[in-house]
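Summary of Year 1 activities. Much of the first year was spent building the evaluation harness for sequence design. The harness presents a backbone, in tokenized form, and records the residue chosen at every position. We chose the following record to illustrate the format because it has been used consistently in internal testing since the harness was completed.
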């Protein structure tokens, strides 16, 4: 049987491949420390789980309007607006099952065959996949370690043109934890206006930040409100990866189109999940702060520990829960290094190359794991390097 061409370029995310390999080793009796997975190790906060359970018991198990329940769209508009110092109308908010559909559907709604889309490399693997499925041409722009993993703006200036339909940003970023400084956002915004393109700003880690760093949204810059799509969600901030709840904020006309794409694909997001989402945003936010403080302790431990290992140097990321150490001095490709660390040290990490060609020479370690496990992982990696 034949498959459509658009499936040819699709491949699995590296994290799933490494997880499968690590689990196969566990079946043989090996104890593996998992630093490959990009999801919080905390449970969903109890008030949120309780709201979801209560909603199921109360019979909120039905369809909702495709772009989301009005109560959730309203509280998202308020809370996402106050977080960014911006004002959003609930009609600009589109709720989706997980944040990913709010990458995919806005891309389908604005990118046509042959359009170029600029995206960060190393970057979240779904960006390239969705650009290709939409028929667009992916144009990777390197993130530079010396810029704390913000764009190489000279390269950005070289590749942007009248053919560019969309620019994807991710700050704080996966896999690097890097934050795009305001000056860089201003540069990118000027170019977006000049070439009349959309900006899709993946802000899913915007609340997982450290050291009082400020993360600006490009949507707040002059002339950007009408061309920016913010993608955000509940998976990381509220430890809700499996609930599947995310959203996009965009100009109303585009929100209507994305709502139609949702209507004809997923229909709507689970009603009880949306009710849990209302509780997440409306309830106690101190839990988020406590979790972020714990991530910061882990970041401090893992960055200091990695920098003591021979052949490894690691920047201090200011956001998300990933480190992206440089391993070029080890003399192995990042795939070889990741395999070696898994086989010899029993620590599952991802090769930087799983995030694109400019990730070669790096590893991604997720520190969404306990301080004890991070310490043990550092010791084990230290032993094999020693
Ligand atoms: N964007 C980035 C940068 C991510 O790292 C992830 C998840 O790993 C997502 C989007 C998708 O989030 P969700 O699980 O809510 O679909």
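For this record, the design step produced the sequence shown next.
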């Amino acid at each position: 049987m034949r498959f459509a061409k658009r499936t040819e370029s699709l491949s699995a995310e590296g994290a799933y491949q490494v997880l499968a390999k690590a689990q196969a080793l566990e079946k043989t009796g090996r104890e593996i420390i998992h630093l490959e997975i990009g999801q919080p190790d905390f449970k969903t906060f109890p008030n949120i789980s309780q709201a979801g359970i209560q909603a199921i018991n109360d019979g909120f198990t039905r369809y909702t309007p495709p772009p989301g329940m009005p109560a959730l769209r309203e509280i998202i508009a308020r809370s996402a607006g106050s977080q960014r110092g911006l004002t959003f109308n609930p009609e600009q908010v589109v709720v989706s099952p997980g944040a990913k559909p709010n990458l995919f559907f806005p891309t389908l709604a604005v990118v046509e065959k042959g359009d170029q889309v600029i995206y960060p490399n190393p970057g979240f693997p779904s960006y390239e996949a969705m650009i290709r499925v939409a028929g667009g041409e992916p144009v990777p722009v390197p993130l530079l370690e010396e810029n704390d993993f913000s764009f190489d703006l000279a390269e950005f200036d070289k590749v942007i043109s009248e053919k560019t339909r969309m620019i994807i940003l991710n700050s704080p970023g996966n896999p690097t934890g890097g934050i795009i400084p305001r000056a860089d956002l201003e540069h990118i915004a000027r170019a977006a206006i000049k070439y009349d393109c959309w900006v899709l700003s993946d802000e899913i880690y915007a609340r997982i930040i450290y050291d009082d760093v400020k993360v600006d949204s490009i949507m707040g810059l002059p002339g950007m409100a009408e061309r920016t799509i913010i993608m955000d969600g509940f998976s990381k901030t509220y430890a809700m990866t499996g609930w599947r709840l995310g959203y996009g904020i965009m100009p109303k006309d585009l929100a209507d189109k994305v709502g139609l794409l949702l209507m004809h694909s997923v229909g709507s997001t689970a009603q009880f999940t949306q009710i849990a989402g209302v509780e997440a945003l409306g309830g106690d936010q101190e839990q988020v702060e406590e979790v972020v403080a714990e991530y910061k302790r882990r970041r401090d431990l893992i960055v200091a520990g990695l920098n003591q290992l021979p052949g490894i140097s690691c920047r201090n990321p200011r956001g998300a829960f990933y480190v992206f150490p440089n391993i070029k001095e080890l003399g192995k490709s990042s795939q070889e290094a990741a395999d070696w660390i898994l086989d010899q040290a029993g620590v599952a990490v991802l090769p930087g190359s799983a995030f694109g060609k400019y990730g070669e020479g790096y590893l991604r370690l997720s520190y969404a794991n306990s301080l004890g496990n991070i310490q043990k992982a550092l010791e084990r990696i230290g032993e094999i390097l020693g």
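The pocket of pyridoxal-5'-phosphate is lined by residues 38, 98-100, 124, 170, 174, 202, 204, 233, 235, 241, 246 (CB under 6 Å). Quantitative recovery figures across the full test set are reported in Table 2.
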